[in-house]
From TrEMBL, chain A:
It comes from Sinobaca qinghaiensis. Signal peptide: none annotated. This is Pyruvate dehydrogenase E1 component beta subunit. It comes from the Bacteria. Residues 4-179 form the Transketolase-like pyrimidine-binding domain. PANTHER family: PYRUVATE DEHYDROGENASE E1 COMPONENT BETA SUBUNIT, PYRUVATE DEHYDROGENASE E1 COMPONENT SUBUNIT BETA. Its cofactor is thiamine diphosphate. Keywords: Oxidoreductase, Pyruvate, Thiamine pyrophosphate. GO terms for molecular function: oxidoreductase activity.
Automatic annotation (TrEMBL), chain B:
This is Dihydrolipoamide acetyltransferase component of pyruvate dehydrogenase complex. Residues 123-160, 165-202 form the Peripheral subunit-binding (PSBD) domain. GO terms for cellular component: cytoplasm. PROSITE patterns: BIOTINYL_LIPOYL, LIPOYL, PSBD. InterPro entries: 2-oxoA_DH_lipoyl-BS (IPR003016), 2-oxoacid_DH_actylTfrase (IPR001078), 2-oxoacid_DH_E2_comp (IPR050743), Biotin_lipoyl (IPR000089), CAT-like_dom_sf (IPR023213), E3-bd_dom_sf (IPR036625), PSBD (IPR004167), Single_hybrid_motif (IPR011053).
Length: 327, 438
């Protein structure tokens, strides 16, 4: 198998689907010749033309509203929001339209659309271009939420998202776009709602999303040298959430740390912690559930502060060691 | 709602009860009045009955475990009801009240001594609690290794290993010989496995003439602690005297067939002594007294405790209102009390409210001894053997049957002279025992 980047995997998945399914089209700001803010759609306009790779005005509300309408009339739009921070502008279309239509009309209409949008800090893009707001949409019934952490997962999950009859928010991490992994050339599907145990271990479970999966794996490697066997679970999709895999892992290890880049307060880690506490895994907990998330501040522009704001490998190591001591 | 089964408080001094056996398994149907378990307490074994009807949901303690008074021993409720894994704390007031309410039938308990062993909530992880529930390790006995003493699973596991009922030596021998300890019956307390159990296969085990150690607990401990307390608290003075038992002996010989015919029971010297004490005590209220809570109570009735040697230890059932009773009634009742005591059927009620105690070792080669006072009573009479002795009678040496009496009294509340006067009057009554018939 060959290695390709996360961005290439998304492009490949998108292109392969568009070749198979003429209902799929892409819309967004500067996605044509420019190739999008992070170059994900680069070259696609040459293959599919401006009819299916549609540049739009700078209005997230308009892009999303157009996509909802297209989806309702039988198309399968994939829209790109340059930065996931701008999802706030699209929120009314997503929350009050896309998420509701199928329910409100008794299933007579459905909205098979995918919102691709890059999230996360680490690029020096500051407060308005670095946030992780997945918890906002995860709260809304009717929206599915995907956070792939590897190129392989991105391609497989994107196919599942495009084939899903519901609106799916597909978070791509900016810093991960250049990360590489083995990706099959042919199309494949990773079903939504299926977590992946990225590393097996026995002493403690780290549940990590997006870029934190990589930090957790790095921490696990170091902790392994210190005699602590860490299991790293990547939920991959927040909605639907693979509770079974999480509960099984925590029941096995008896200790759990939940790590995400989003602000800890009100973050999805609280939801995962709640799922664990309410489950039979409770009986196996031998230390308090612990969450690591960003500090409750806007993402700083200063790269040192930007780094300090979100959990780093050392923070995870420290948290694991404290949890092992029962602290 | 599941109802707790409490360890009853059967006497004012009872602090814990030891579980002797369960009559019901978890899941068994229990009706009101069914005996649920048997406990050993202050001197007695007693069956505890159910106050509720339902299913026995939980048994928190095993045989030989001690349970604090008013501690929760188990739960009765409906099939499938949830009950705590641990007995936990006795809920403060309601439980105490409830328990005392129940006990009120048996006695008017003093309101003190209703504390439960642990008043602090146990800090333990869910995993530790689950493990403790499975292994029956009481969490409140553990020292947690986590912050603020939080108990983790490994703390429970370590303690479980320590509680394995096998000595380290036995474990080593078993490992050397490849013996599976699971199949070995321990000969120690609670089936603890000693080396000898491992060395001899079960069928070859013969009761060896080895010293056997038993725990200082239960009845033995209760008696011992009371003796210790009395001996150390009370300034004992013992007065000794000998009585000429010629007439006493003659009278007993004459009355024995009469009383045997009437009651079917044999008149003993002790019965005549009890009869005499019953009368003499009434005229010596200073001796017929109890001393409790800085208060001396002088009694108008003679409730005489009779020391009985049972296999499991000393029992002192009380014969009430002796001064009002005929000799034949005394014979009848004291024999019944003695039989009950030896069979371990003495009820707490039978041992209460004594005002004086008699301890008779006359069947042994004991001339006299210094008895220890049975608190809160003020005095006790020790009775030695009746045997022939040469004594001076009207200036000549004669062989007469002689009985020795020893009166121990509490010098805090009785002085020497009144105690001596009591003993003297008792001696006179017993030397001229027909006076008792007046």
């Amino acid at each position: 198998m060959r290695e390709i980047t996360y961005a290439e995997a998304v492009r490949e998945g998108l292109s392969q689907r568009m070749r198979e399914d003429s209902d799929v089209f892409v819309l967004g700001e500067d996605i044509g010749v420019y190739g999008g803010a992070f170059g994900v759609t680069r070259g696609m306009i040459e293959e599919f033309g401006p009819e299916r790779i549609r540049n739009t005005p700078i209005s997230e509300a308009a892009i999303t509203g157009a996509a909802v309408g297209a989806a309702l009339t039988g198309m399968k739009p994939v829209l790109e929001l340059q930065f996931s921070d701008f999802i706030t502008i699209a929120m009314d279309q997503l929350v009050n339209q896309a998420a509701k239509v199928r329910y409100m009309y008794g299933g007579k209409g459905h909205v098979p659309m995918v919102v691709r949008t890059p999230s996360g800090s680490g690029t020096g893009a500051a407060a308005q271009h670095s946030q992780s707001l997945e918890a906002w949409v995860a709260h809304i019934p009717g929206l599915k939420v995907v956070q792939p952490s590897t190129a392989y997962d991105a391609k497989g999950l994107l196919k599942a998202a495009m084939e899903d009859p519901n609106p799916v928010i597909f978070y791509e991490h900016k810093v991960l776009y250049k990360s590489k992994s083995d990706v099959p050339e042919e199309e494949y599907t990773i079903p939504l709602g299926k977590a992946d145990v990225k590393k097996e271990g026995t002493d403690v479970t780290i549940i990590a999303t997006a870029i934190m999966v990589h930090k957790a794996l790095e921490a696990a490697e170091e902790l392994e040298k210190r005699g602590i066997s860490v299991e790293v679970v990547d939920p991959r999709t927040l909605v639907p959430l693979d509770e079974e895999t999480i509960i099984a892992s925590v029941s096995k290890t008896g200790r759990v740390i939940i790590v995400h880049e989003a602000v800890k307060r009100g973050g999805f880690g609280g939801e995962i912690a709640g799922v664990i506490a309410e489950s039979e895994a409770f009986d196996y907990l031998d230390a308090p559930i612990r969450r690591l998330g960003a500090l409750p501040i806007p993402v700083p522009y200063n790269p040192v502060l930007e780094k300090a704001m979100i959990p780093q490998v050392e923070d995870i190591i420290k948290a694991v060691e404290e949890t092992m001591r029962g602290a | 709602m599941a109802k707790e089964i409490f360890m009853p408080k059967l006497s004012s001094t009872m602090e814990t009860g030891t579980l002797l056996q369960w009559f019901k398994e978890e899941g068994d149907q229990v009706d009101v009045g069914d005996p649920v378990f048997e406990i050993m307490t202050d001197k007695i074994n007693i069956e505890v009955e159910a106050y509720e009807e339902g299913i026995l949901l939980k048994r928190y303690y095993g045989v030989d475990e001690e349970v604090p008074v008013n501690g929760i021993v188990g739960y009765i409720g409906k099939e499938g009801e949830e009950v705590p894994d641990q007995p936990g704390e006795t809920p403060e007031d309601p439980a105490v009240e409830k328990a005392e309410e129940k006990e009120a039938v048996i006695e008017n308990t003093s309101s003190s001594e209703t504390e439960v062993s642990s008043d602090k909530k146990v800090r333990a992880t869910p995993a530790a609690r689950k493990k403790a529930g499975e292994t029956g390790v009481p969490l409140h006995t553990l020292q947690g290794s986590g912050p603020n003493g939080r108990i983790h699973k490994k703390d429970v596991e370590v303690s479980g290993q320590q509680q394995e009922r096998v000595t380290p030596l036995a474990e080593k021998v078993a490992a050397d010989k490849g013996v599976d300890l699971a199949g070995v019956q321990g000969s120690g307390p609670n089936g603890k496995i000693y080396r000898r159990d491992v060395e001899l296969p079960a069928e070859e085990q013969v009761p060896a003439a080895e010293t056997i150690s038993t725990a200082y607990e239960g009845t033995r401990r209760f008696i011992g602690d009371r003796m210790q307390q009395s001996s150390s608290e009370i300034p004992h003075v013992t007065l000794n005297t000998e009585i000429d038992a010629s007439v006493l002996k003659k009278m007993r010989a004459e009355l024995l067939p009469v009383i045997e015919k009437k009651t079917g029971k044999r008149l003993s010297y002790n019965d005549i002594l009890v009869k005499a004490l019953g009368e003499v005590l009434i005229s010596h209220p200073q001796v017929n007294a109890t001393f409790e809570n800085n208060s001396i109570t002088r009694h108008q009735e003679s409730h005489i405790g009779i020391a009985v040697a049972a296999d499991f230890g000393l029992m002192v059932p009380v014969l009430r209102d002796v001064e009002k009773k005929s000799l034949s009634l005394i014979v009848q009742e004291s024999k019944e009390l003695a039989v009950k005591a030896r069979e371990g059927r003495t009820r707490p009620d039978d041992m209460k409210q004594g005002t004086f105690t008699i301890s008779n070792l006359g069947m042994y080669a004991v001339d006299h001894f210094n008895p220890i006072i049975n608190q809160p009573q003020a005095a006790i009479l020790g009775v030695g053997r009746l045997h022939d002795k040469v004594i001076a009678v009207n200036g000549t040496a004669e062989v007469r049957p002689v009985l020795s009496l020893s009166l121990s009294f509490d010098h805090r509340i009785i002085d020497g002279a009144p105690a001596a006067a009591f003993l003297t009057e008792l001696k006179e009554k017993l030397e001229s025992p027909y006076q008792l018939l007046i």
